[in-house]
Amino acid sequence: MESAHVSAIISAAAGISGVLLGNIFVLIKEWLTKRKTAKQDTTYLGIIVVSHLDRFATGCLNVALDDGTQHGQPAGERGEHVPVITPPNFRPLDLDVEWKLLPMDLMYSILRLPDQQDQLHGNLTGIHQFNYDPPDHIEYFQARRRGYAVLGLQASDLATKLRLYVGLPAEELDPGEWNRDKNMRDIKSDIDERVSEGHLRNTTQQQ
């Protein structure tokens, strides 16, 4: 009788253990499936967003090169410098990706790019309204070109960070190959130097 009781307990314990193990295996399988899906979704996000960031950065370079002339001549009427290149658009929230898969700081930086572009346009509008200086509009074009060079470099840097996070291969340029980011850095440095020289010249004249 006692032996039968022990056997019943062992059988019950074995049944419970079997159920628990079965549940654990199911949970592990579900976890592995979700992990695989999340990795695939993250890789997809990286491919899509990196492509858009790179195109945006290239568009920013095109604006940074725009000094209001065409073929060396003022692009507007009566010798006035006017914008030739239309600024690029980057609308991350229109992309069909799961943003929550990214770390908060990286996601925040990417999603803030349109806000930074809006701030730049607000600054340019202020210069155009309150420091109107035809026909060259030097201050306006310096601010526009520099602002887009900085914005393009930020987009390119975010693309690099996103590639690294999702495991995409880094972009490698051959020596002497055209370098978009170097062009933007050179534009920024050149404008900073000209602005600094202008401030120094004004200070000297006032003295």
TrEMBL record:
Keywords: Membrane, Transmembrane, Transmembrane helix. The chain crosses the membrane at residues 6-28. Residues 175-207 are annotated as: Disordered. It comes from the Bacteria. The keyword Transmembrane applies. Residues 177-200 have a biased composition (Basic and acidic residues). This is Uncharacterized protein. It comes from Pseudomonas trivialis.
